[in-house]
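cache lookup: miss for this entity combination. No prior model stored, computing from scratch. Input as submitted by user K.M.:
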Amino acid sequence: MAFPNMLYGRVLKSPHAHARVRSIDVSKAEKMGAVTITPDEIPDVTYCPRLVSVPEATYKDWKVLADKPHYVGEAIGAVAAESEEEAQKALEAIEVEYDVLGASFDAFDAMKPGAEQVHDEIYLKDDLLKVENNIGCQLSITEGDPIALEEADVVIERTYRTNRRYHNQLETKSVVVRPEADGGISVWSTTQTIHNTRLLLHDIYGIPMGKIRVYKVALGGSFGSSIHVNPVVTIAVALALKSRRPVKLSYTREEDIRDHCAYQMIFKLKLGANKNGMLAGGRLEAYLDIGAHQIQAYPLLGCIVGWWVSLYKLPYKDYVGKAVYTNKVPSCAFRGYGNPQISWVVETMMDELAGKIDIDPLDFRLKNYIGEGDLFWGQGPSVKSIIQSCGVEEILTKGAEMVDWYNRPNPEEQTGRYRRGWGVGRGYHTSSAGAPVPSSIVDFGGAILKMNEDGTFDYISALMDHGCGTQEAHVKIIAEELQVPVNKVNIIRGDTGTTVYDVCTHASRGVYSGGGAALKVAMKVQEQIRSFAGRILDAYPHAVRIRYDEETDQTIIFAEGIEGREVSYREIAETARHKNWGTVASVESYRQPSCPPHFTGYFVNVEVDTWTGKVKLLRVVAGADIGTVINPLLAAGQVHGGFAQGWSMTTLEDMPYDPIDGDLVNRGSIANYKVPTTQDLLDVDDLTVFFADTYEPTGPFGAKGIGEGALNPVAGTVANAIQNALGVRFFQLPITPIRILEALKEKEE
Amino acid sequence: MKIEITVNGRKRQFDVEPNKLLLNLVRDELHLTGTKYGCGIGECGACTVHLDGEAVLACMVLAVDADGKQVDTIEGVAEDGNLDPVQEAFIEEGAIQCGFCTPGFIMTTKALLKENPNPTEHEIREYLKGNYCRCTGYVNIINAVQSAAKKLQS
């Protein structure tokens, strides 16, 4: 994107993991013609860049520019100039003096008494809180009688550590901000929510909401990294307001990798089971190494316990979750929002427990899973609903048959260089955060649908499509309801001024929740069409029928059995105009009454080279229960992509820090942060995806989500397959060749 | 430095700094923004264009090195308002999710099918290994390349 007279921004970032800015001298940069901003020129507002939770559950510790940076890469100033090159030169001319402070790069170090505090004070809603031991927020929940766990036949307790992953979305975080003549601004940014972007910019800069227009733009991947308003956006607004010129600010890849990452978690899990094959209870401690700021740590603590207790029935459950500040890049949601992490842990331990009570791991899962009719609170303790559709049994039994599960190898019998193993894992994710009662999470959307004068339709929604085919699914839902071909429904790319509120595209809610809103407007529009048709045909609106006529390419409303009483959509639209009846149109908001899990299950076959530690994929069978499948190709595509990201999480990705200078060991280079290429996965014919035959009563035409459930069980499944090949379990991700060789050596000794 | 490049079939003259990247010329001066910046270090393939018919990474080519040559970008692939068979195949096979990597994949695929009109899956995976996709797991992309090969042969 570009506008005439546009400036290019660059951001001045802290080279220190923790420091106080003693002085910033921008005079040389300004002499070069650059426009500069420093912390004291920005409104003194402390905020949270993610506005999905209600204020009472929102912790705030961010400023647009930091005068006390908390990680390498935190913005402390910015410049705008005629070109990126000039902006960079101006940036390098800024002189900064720092007082360097102590820093922590590990959650447990940070919690030790006497550790340097990342933040002394933060806000919860508008109340000032003192931070102690770097614990940003915490949550505890207990249900049931602990005796169930204490007296279980078998109890296992282990510590698990997940990796720190980078989304590596192909488009780096970018924005264009144009100041408008009325004092407002127009914004085109990488975002999963245009309305929450507007809300935050209003909160920080005090611009009346109607004068902030945030436009939908195509997003080059995101995977959760733009649920919150990205720092480039708030910074570019300040540059545009000061320069009174359009400003473009795009991060380089090296900057982007220091902008966001997934939550790294350390879990202590204790699970008990009885010899009858039933789980007795569990205790989970979760420590989130959140980095230097909170984006959505508190709701995540709720989700982690929700994900955990909604996988399997636990008569007793006890949970403590703590989000710990460290001097690292702030963590944010990444596809699955903690679910891939906790599912890896639970699915690994389920296998181990099954071995201890001598039951097949697949049968153990079938006996204990939470399914239809059960209470589900995956999205955390405040979002509860009853499961009304469930394909777990179908997925697991059909998959088992396809891979001949019960004849899988015994790990102890394998001795050669190459050893093969099968693993099973299952999981789910919520579709939206809907529920029959309000919760601490906002979840509703809206849509506008109008009939054009030629009988076609314009569909206008604020819901962002990251490339999951969400808007295409909405079009299919509308087309189905109105009985028109999909090419008669146009997607209009709106902005905050021309759409009604939608919270955000996250929580796999695009088809279920956004599609619910699309269906609601389509139903209202159909009612109006029937009403107009009734007037034209002298027929009762509720009695007329609708059919699509291929020959004329028109949808016809007709009174069945009565000759001559039929009229096309086009004729209805024309008549309504000529007779001044008005436009057929509807605007609706919609809140889903439920939070239905979409279930997934994987069977994975690997071959481990015991000389090199390399793991090769041989065969993958994936089953998914997503209710009615609206976009079969793209739904399968979600499973393919979810598997690839899960494989990458299990075997490749991590971002360790250099404790000496506090920067990433990979120095921001994706050459040192590998994700799978075409050569690192398995042949197309060796990956099978099937869908369970289910129907979700609350979903649009029976549909649920898929995006996140496609990923969640993968790490557990792959880890179980490696165990089946080698007879070794891993308690740290990623499972790299070096870790495999070390474990094999230890086993031999 | 004064250079002349034939961009998508049209001769264009430019006066560029010697360190100007072809990627920046294409995006910022020609406004052909289908060619994407993904990494700037030749890792991701999102900036793939054709230089005299060969797939190259525009972030690794200086604009001056394209002097006197022909540069084709994704914008020049469709002809007379009709999509190229490779583009059609990517749409039909659901090979596009966010779409950011798609122009690069299509340019690389076109170069592959020119060299090898009937590639095996192994050959496709080998040729496309420099193009990242974070969304699709490559499955539908491989299917699309095979489908495009069939379209071009018939």
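stored under new cache key. The two ends of chain B are 45 Å apart (CA to CA).
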